[in-house]
Design brief:
globular, disordered N terminus, 31-stranded mixed beta sheet, 59 strands, alpha/beta, disordered C terminus
């Protein structure tokens, strides 16, 4: 790309330098007048054209003339970054430009023409060879008259439009006009809406025989043709087609462009294997032989859906006689397999980006051959094994990220000693994977030869001591030592490094001691120290810190009263799970950019002050739960216009809900449980907070009835009004809570909440969005159980216990196919238990005790496993298993009349079997020893016994002999009679 641009610039230098080098002609008067008319039409708030005065216009800023003729040949009015916003030209581009008949270079880019259209007359400036209108805030379509510029070599219209008007359909462009640009070498239409040209864009650009550089990124193209319509693109060396919606495989023709050195197909929804571009191995080898692959310097295929392995592609590239590949970016795909050892043969490789894939195995030892490698990104794969010592041979490395894998073994200073240029180093394991054994064992005496700016070591063993080899790393901007098994205090030398940090992350270690206030931070910086044992008062650092997380430590004392003044840039503040005392400081209300405020699980007391009195702010998450806060909820809570999660549970707050809460229309979670709020539950909750996911008023003093308006909360999936003084009937319309009656999942979100299920309180976070629960227990509700509740097919927990409900259990309760917990205990329900309850296959907690239910307890399916009799306790009219009361006719069905009932029959049979085995044993002993014992003791009996046995044997032998003799005689007689006949 750089070579192409350089050649264009060289061309213009030749043009400008042409003529007599020792003579400089004066400015042409008509052209000076034309320039002054142009200046008159432009808005120039920063007076960039103040030099446009005097006779010689060739000395004016941005103007260049021919040394030979004095004609204006170049006009560069590009706005530079140093010019600032006020340095951008605006206004109108005068037709007087047409008087500059020899102008071949025009640059109006990076200005603000406030949506005016690109002047059509530019298409009449036939000598133009360079035209740049990029990012100049024009509007409308590209005028087709530009196609008349047959001498044009360089055209840049990248994002030429005004972003406020470009969504208009009038900005859709075709590409028919470019066919006349026969000399064009560089074309940049990045960001230009070419959606209506999707079907023919490749054919259109193929008509430009000299084209060497083409940029069509973010053009709304939806078709990537499978074949090349012509072979005119033989000069193309740079092709950028990123951020389009092709949704196709990689076509083969892309790798048949012989002069291609730079290819970018990132963010294109490409799918399939990279090797799909090569129908067979022969074509792959052929491309290597003709040089189409071997001369590629940059290949970018990141952010797609490509799969398969890359071994064969790397093998072919590695066998190029002189591989040119310098930059390979395949990140953020679905590629897998191992990294082949042949990757070490890509000797010119400078950057290797394979992050966010599914590669497995270890880093090949041959990686050490890549002596030019500067960037290595392998993070977020499934790689494992040890990091080879050859890694230390990459002495040109500047950035390494191999984090979020499953490394093992030991990494020592020998891996790092030669990395003299390294600035970014990230080596960590995935914290969600168990049994990871990577050890960072670096001598405390070692002095690194580099100065890091970014260091991440995570989910590995760095400790037990804080790494001493960091003592000379005084250029660090980001330091992450998370989950690193470091304990003890942070040494004093670290605080003396005088670092200015963008991020400090030491979370989930066992670090202790006090934190000084001396640390310095850059703008928008973050501090994460959660999950340690830091103690003392809260540290307050520079005003630049925007995210401060000190959760789960041992900090004590009050929150500094001036926290709002000393850290005014805070957007996230988490002080939960510490031992903080005192009151909430009023200065928190001055943190106008604060979005999350977590101070739960401390010992804060007193009233919640009017923190946000009349001040609109950006707070989205507020959690002050599990403290000792008291008093009423301040009316200033109504100023939280963007609040989504409000959690104030388990405090001592009281009074009625302020009407200003109606202003919080974006609320998704309202948790006021475990307080002493009173009065009626406001009906306006449903109208003003229509998107509620969680409504939790558990354990308060609310009275009155449940407002039926709550039934309109179509997104509600947790409703907990238990342990209040609510009365009246349960609204029959609760069956309209569609979020609990649909298979469509809610928006996935994370948030802490406690839900009573299966008879116990469980905390949910990552899967909270999957929990569907209704708990109205421990109130004074009366009437029937609404049959409409059975419409909630995805309801997981239903608790209506400890009320005054009457009537029957709904017969179609079996429709609650996802129900896991059902508690209807301690009511006055009557009638039979519906047989459909046996079809609740997910049910694992059931309580129907202390009611007036009657009839046989259903059996089958899941109810067979729920065999605890206490489930049905104190329902006198119930019978059947698992309780002891038998239903009428049970015994007669199993035994003849007059017999015992079933259990007695089973018990009797079991008793008889025991006696049977016992008597059999006794009989064996008596029978055996009664005979054999007598024969042993009495000799006369023994002699008589054996005499009798001998006689019996002799008799048997005699009988056998007689029978054999008779059989032989019979066969002899039979043979004689046959011979006579």
């Amino acid at each position: 790309m750089a070579t192409s641009i350089a050649s264009v610039h060289l061309l213009f230098l030749v043009i400008m330098a042409s003529g007599f080098p020792f003579h400089k002609a004066a400015c042409i008067e008509t052209e000076k007048e034309a320039l002054l008319k142009l200046k008159q039409g432009l808005l120039d708030p920063s007076h960039r054209l103040s030099s446009w005065d005097g006779d010689d216009c060739c000395k004016w800023r941005g103007v260049a003339c021919s040394n030979r003729t004095g004609h204006v040949i170049k006009l560069n009015l590009r706005s530079l970054e140093d010019d600032g916003i006020d340095g951008k030209f605006g206004g109108e581009i005068s037709h007087s430009l047409l008087e500059l008949k020899y102008l071949n270079y025009l640059d109006l880019s990076m200005n603000n023409f406030e949506g005016t259209k690109i002047p059509k007359f530019i298409g009449s400036m036939e000598r133009l060879r360079y035209l740049n209108l990029s990012a100049a805030s024009f509007s409308g379509r590209i005028p087709p008259q530009l196609g008349n510029l047959s001498r044009l070599i360089y055209l840049d219209l990248k994002e030429y439009f005004d972003l406020n008007t470009y969504s208009d359909e009038s900005s859709q462009n075709d590409l028919q006009w470019i066919s006349g640009l026969s000399s064009l070498r560089h074309l940049n239409l990045e960001g230009v809406n070419l959606s209506i040209a999707s079907a023919y864009w490749l054919q259109a650009v193929s008509m430009l025989p000299s084209l060497s550089e083409l940029h069509l990124s973010s053009c709304g193209l939806s078709l990537l043709p499978s074949s090349l319509p012509s072979s005119n693109l033989t000069s193309l060396s740079v092709l950028v087609l990123s951020i389009n919606g092709f949704n196709s495989t990689i076509p083969e023709w892309l790798f048949q462009l012989r002069n291609l050195v730079y290819l970018d197909l990132s963010f294109d929804n490409l799918e399939g294997s990279i090797l799909d571009a090569f129908p067979n191995r022969t074509s792959l080898e052929k491309l290597k032989m003709v040089g189409s692959l071997c001369q590629l310097k940059t290949l970018i295929l990141s952010e797609n859906n490509l799969n398969g392995e890359i071994t064969e592609l790397i093998d072919i590239l590695s066998r190029c006689s002189n591989s040119s590949l310098e930059h390979l970016n395949l990140g953020f795909n679905k590629l897998g397999g191992v990294l082949p050892n042949s990757i070490g043969n890509l000797y010119n490789l400078q950057s290797l980006l394979l992050w966010e894939n599914s590669f497995v195995g270890s880093i090949p030892n041959s990686i050490g051959n890549l002596s030019n490698l500067k960037e290595l990104y392998l993070s977020n794969n499934q790689m494992s094994g040890t990091i080879p010592e050859t890694f230390g041979q990459l002495n040109e490395l500047v950035a390494v990220d191999v984090s979020e894998n499953s490394w093992e073994g030991v990494l020592t200073e020998s891996h790092l000693s030669n990395l003299k240029h390294i600035k970014d180093l990230a080596i960590s394991n995935n914290p969600l994977l168990p049994n990871q054994t990577l050890v960072i064992n670096i001598s405390s005496e070692w002095i690194p030869p580099f100065k890091l700016k970014y260091l991440e070591l995570g989910s590995c063993q760095v400790g037990p001591a804080f790494p001493v080899w960091l003592r000379n790393q005084n250029e660090l901007n980001i330091l992450i030592l998370r989950d690193a098994e470091i304990s003890g205090t942070i040494p004093a030398w670290f605080w003396k490094l005088d670092l200015e940090l963008d991020q400090l992350n030491l979370r989930n270690n066992q670090l202790s001691g006090r934190i000084p206030n001396s640390l310095r931070f850059t703008s928008q910086s973050s501090v994460h120290l959660k999950g340690n044992q830091f103690s003392g008062s809260l540290p307050l650092w520079s005003s630049n810190v925007s995210r401060l997380n000190l959760r789960n430590n041992l900090f004590s004392g009050p929150i500094p009263s001036d926290i709002g003044e000393r850290m005014p840039m805070l957007t996230e503040l988490d002080l939960s799970y510490n031992s903080l005392t005192g009151m909430l400081p009023l200065s928190i209300g001055t943190l106008y950019g604060l979005q999350t405020l977590y101070i739960s699980n401390n010992y804060l007391s007193g009233d919640i002050p009017e923190l946000w009195d009349g001040v609109r702010n950006l707070l989205v998450h507020v959690d002050l739960s599990n403290n000792n806060l008291s008093g009423e909820l301040p009316s200033s809570v109504g100023s939280l216009m963007f609040i989504v999660f409000l959690t104030l549970s388990n405090n001592h707050l009281s009074g009625e809900l302020p009407s200003t809460l109606q202003n919080c229309t974006y609320l998704r979670k309202l948790d006021l449980g475990g307080n002493r709020f009173s009065g009626n539950i406001p009906a306006w909750i449903a109208q003003t907070m229509p998107s509620l996911w969680i409504l939790r008023f558990r354990s308060n003093l609310f009275n009155g009835s449940i407002p039926s308006q709550l039934c309109s909360l179509s997104s509600l999936h947790i409703l907990d009004l238990a342990q209040n003084n609510l009365s009246g009937s349960i609204p029959s319309c609760l069956g309209n809570l569609s979020a609990m009656a649909s298979e469509i999942e809610l928006f996935r979100y994370e948030g802490d909440s406690t839900v009573l299920t299966k008879g116990r309180e469980d905390s949910y976070r990552s899967i909270l969005y999957l929990v569907n629960s209704i708990d109205l227990s421990n109130n004074a509700l009366s009437g029937d159980v609404p049959g409409g509740l059975t419409n909630l097919s995805t309801l997981g927990s239903l608790n209506l216990s400890i009320n005054h409900l009457t009537g029957k259990i709904p017969t179609n309760i079996g429709q609650l196919q996802r129900l896991e917990t059902l508690d209807l205990s301690r009511n006055q329900l009557s009638g039979p238990i519906p047989a459909g309850m046996a079809s609740l296959t997910f049910l694992n907690h059931l309580n129907l005790s202390y009611n007036n239910l009657s009839g046989r307890i259903p059996t089958g399916n899941q109810l067979q496993a729920l065999d605890d009799p206490s489930i049905y306790r104190d329902n006198p009219a119930l019978c059947g298993r698992p309780i002891t009361t038998r239903c009428p006719g049970d015994y007669e069905a199993l035994n003849p009349p007059g017999g015992d009932d079933e259990d007695e029959d089973e018990d009797g049979a079991e008793f008889e079997m025991k006696w049977f085995y016992l008597s059999m044993g006794i009989g064996f002993v008596v029978g055996f020893w009664g005979v054999c014992g007598t024969l042993v003791v009495m000799e006369s009996w023994r002699q008589a016994y054996f005499r009798g046995v001998y006689k019996m044997i002799e008799w048997i032998i005699l009988v056998i002999q007689l029978n054999v003799a008779r059989l032989l005689q019979r066969k002899l007689n039979l043979g004689r009679s046959q011979s006579r006949t």
